[in-house]
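A favour, since you know our C-alpha cells better than I do. Just paste the record in under my message, thanks.
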Amino acid sequence: MKDIKSKVQNLNPSIQALDMKNLVSKTSNVYEALCVIASRAKQLNVDIKHELYQKLDEFAVSTDAIEEIHENKEQIEISKFYERLPNPVIIAMDEYFNNELHHRYTGRKKEFED
C-alpha cells in the first residue's frame, strides 16, 4: 500500500448515495462493478491490517507476567488513526470512480460460438 495517509485525506468516511448509471458505465453490469470494487476492498483491508500490525509490533514488549501490560501513547495514537480511516469499500469506490482500478477477465469462456 502506497501512502494511504495522503490518499484518504480528502475522502469523506461516511456512506453516500451513488448514481447506478455511473457505477455501471465502466463494466456495463452492476454485479461486475461490485465484484471489482469488493476485490479491491479486500486487498486494501489486508494491506491496512498488515501495515497496522507492523507499526504496533514496533512497540511490542515481551514479558511473562500478564499484570505488566503497559499503555503506550504512540500505540494509542496509531490505533486511533487507523480507526478513523474510511472503510476499505469507500476507498475502493473512490478509486473505481477516479479510474484508478484496472480489471480484466481471466478464464472467461465464450457463451455462444456461431
The mean pLDDT is 79.
